[in-house]
Model the fold of this input.
Amino acid sequence: MADAAIAARGRGTRPAEKRAPLQTRKAADAVNPNEPATWGKVSRNAPCPCGSGKKYKHCHGKYE
Done:
């Protein structure tokens, strides 16, 4: 019965969408904490690769 209620509201009836694969950072051994060029693309909410313990957005990812 729950499936019928969901279908009646119009949810869950869309066909599956193709999504791009997630981008991942380099392996931990390939990242040099002292060289930002080796970090690759870092998510804003991920810990900063420099080792400060802060989120990237509050450390090296700040907009100035």
